[in-house]
Amino acid sequence: MLDHIAIQVQDIAASAAFYDAVLAPLGGERKKQYGANISYGIEGHPLWLVPTSDPAPARELHLAFAAADRAGVDAFHEAALATGAEILHAPRLWPEYHESYYGVFVRDPDGNNVEAVCHRPE
């Protein structure tokens, strides 16, 4: 159902560096630059970073990226740590969601709650 989403960012370079790092372990990469806008995906352009012209902080948003396995979630976590991102919740099982829900939650440079999740059992 969802084709793509664009999120506004205060510092396009800082946000691009963050998403370059954390999406690589999941197979995601920069796909296109259109003006100052940057897209990411495995196929297509499902995520766009768009610079904001509003100096006020953006409202927090939650993005969850699918990992093929738990090792991908762990690699996302390590990449986020390497960027200096705030770790909201280290990788672990979240049985309150379902018995195989393995995820990590971090903050991107704009304060968004960014997750990597694997739904497969070990």
Automatic annotation (TrEMBL):
Instruction: State the Pfam families in the record.
Output: Glyoxalase (PF00903)
Task: Say which domain of life the source belongs to.
Answer: Bacteria
Q: Which PROSITE patterns match?
A: VOC
Q: Where is the VOC domain?
A: 1-119
InterPro entries linked: Glyas_Bleomycin-R_OHBP_Dase, Glyas_Fos-R_dOase_dom, VOC_core
Q: What is this protein called?
A: VOC family protein
| Top-level taxonomy | Bacteria, Bacillati, Actinomycetota, Actinomycetes, Kitasatosporales
